[in-house]
Amino acid sequence: MAEKQKDLKTIRIFDTTLRDGEQSPGASMNIDEKLRIARQLQKLNVDVIEAGFPIASDGDFEAVKKIAQTIKGPEIAGLARANTHDITRCWEAVKYAEGKGRIHTFIATSIIHMKYKLKMPPEAVLRAAIKAVELARHFTPNVEFSCEDAVRTDLKFLAEVVAAVIDAGATTVNIPDTVGYTIPFEYFNIIKYLKENVPNIDQAVISVHCHNDLGLSVANSIAAIQAGAGQVECTINGIGERAGNCSLEEFVMALRTRSDILPFRTNVVTEQLTPASRLLTTVTGIVVQPNKAIVGANAFAHEAGIHQHGMLCEKTTYEIMTPESVGLKTSLLVLGKHSGRHAFKKRLEEMGYALDDDVLNKAFERFKTLADLKKEVFDEDLDAIVADGVQGEEKFKLEHITVTCGSFAIATATVQISTFGEMSRTAGLGDGPVDATLEAIKKLTKTKAKLKQYNVGAITGGTDAQGEVTVRIADGDRTAIGRGASTDIIEASAKAYIQALNRLERGKGEKKTDMHDAVTP
User: Fold this and answer.
1) Which domains does the chain have, with CATH numbers?
2) Which of 10, 210, 429, 509 has the CB geometry, 3.0–4.6 Å to 217, for a possible disulfide?
3) Whole-model pTM?
């Protein structure tokens, strides 16, 4: 196996969870949350972490800077449009990465983008691209250039731009499918065309960045590396704008599982894939669907009798990879009310959590409370317990809820919350207990945010399962997602709603730069 691995071409993994992934509606993260994700990406051993868009806001700048100062191993990239201000600001953030800072600059090259968005002729776009790369090269030799909307770009002009930016000093050239438009054989031919028609193409790594609008991002990325691309840009859980990006875990495990016909490998520590997926879900509140490949709850679940029989005889009858290879523990041994602190800590460490003593003690208290309410505590319950304890200092905190309801009564909820430690209480009426509870919270917080989405489900099986609620709220053009878990679905709803309100509050003071509706790679 070791000899076989030596014969495989190594594909660089460029993770953009913290930049493109964060552009998912409601998925914005604060600096501490971004740093937690970055530390997990370091454990995954990705080659490049695109930490953010430094010009977008002061908060994004500080997050990129903090990650560059803290994370060791992966290169740290920042995104910048093809202008002096963006590129200079980007370098000010990534320069702390001890020789591993990357400036990733871009401009659109398709006719539709040049005509309607940039309002620039091709000649001006070409000059801007060259100038941007030359400026970035002045700061660092680690420069990536992206031809935004490359797959809808005239191939001759695309080749001209690629050759020019490589001459200007770009060491990585990205050919993104910005709108998820292409299909595998077409994308293969685009990369092949560049390999055959750009004289200096061997002086740079070809990168690909595929969106999933047609559900083909992973397939397109595989087609691209078969044609000669050497870097794939992707995100944990495939999150990102619109339908998302190429899923890191799906792409990596496709190469690992089918190395018999795909002569490629990555440096990713695949055992960290499930912890990474769960951490991102905890931070953003964006739930992975049960049937999600690799990291979904049902990815290694077998219910049909024929499948179960096959699994008992030989696991490879129905599993093409082992759960352990993606960091999933298959043991049925679960924690309960008789478990001690040591067992609790060890299980969290196995799941990828590293908590300091204070946070661990508080999480253990929540665990013991939950264990008294249900017979078995599963890994998903532990994820929810940790999520409840790592929100940091928040403006609003839920203290108490009392609800009365029935088929012949108007639902009434009495809610008490603290606002920066100051207690307040009120009652609300509604069409049901959840509606009444949220109405009371609205009164206490004086929020004008509107509830856009409300989802509820059971984290685990059984009548004593924890309920998990995810809400999406909007206040003007700002949205936020909140996630709450409890054996009481009313309490879970209140927790989710308050978490979303706190996330909106955190975003109020952050100054945003006018991006002029720029579409990113």
Assistant:
1) 2-284 (3.20.20.70), 300-330 (no CATH), 396-508 (3.30.160.270)
2) 210
3) 0.76
